[in-house]
Amino acid sequence: MFIGVGRLELRIPASASLKAKRQVVKGITGGLRVKFNVAVAEVDHQELWQRASIGVTCISESGFHAQKMLREVERFVERDARVEILGTTVDVHAWSDFDGD
Questions:
Q1: Closest among 43, 50, 55 to 3, alpha carbons compared
Q2: In DSSP terms, which residues pair with 4 in a beta bridge?
Q3: pLDDT digits over 56-67, tens only?
Q4: Which end of the chain is flanked by fewer CB atoms within 10 Å, N or C?
């Protein structure tokens, strides 16, 4: 079993309020949950109008598949015209990295 963890640093240039930002972030996170069945949350910059950090995680039978899923997540967000991706981090870990075996 493999765990994929990704972080997307986003800029939301048209946002003029926290409410407008929340609408964009909620749309993206909801779309990711439905399309990819991943766990996703806003993890940083909650107080800034035009910035957001989204954390995404998935579990898969292979490291390759987990990596592929997270890259597809990145492409999905990239296609959203409301945001710019400033940076992305992706890590994949084997379950044995965590359970001590």
A1: 55
A2: 58, 92
A3: 999 999 999 999
A4: C
Using an 8 Å Cβ cutoff, are 14 and 82 in contact? yes
CB 43 within 8 A of CB 56: no
pLDDT digits (tens, 9 = 90+) for 27-52: 999 999 999 999 999 999 989 999 99
CA 64 distance to own-chain centroid = 18
Q: How many CB atoms lie within 10 A of CB 7?
A: 17
Strand-by-strand arrangement of the 39-44 sheet: 39-44, 51-60, 2-11, 84-94
Which DSSP letter does residue 47 get? Answer: T
β-pair partners for 59? 3
Give the pLDDT confidence score for residue 100 in this predicted structure.
Answer: 59
Contact criterion met (CB below 8 Å) for 8 and 77: yes
Instruction: Tell me the DSSP string of 4-33.
Output: EEEEEEEE-TT--SHHHHHHHHHHHHHHHH
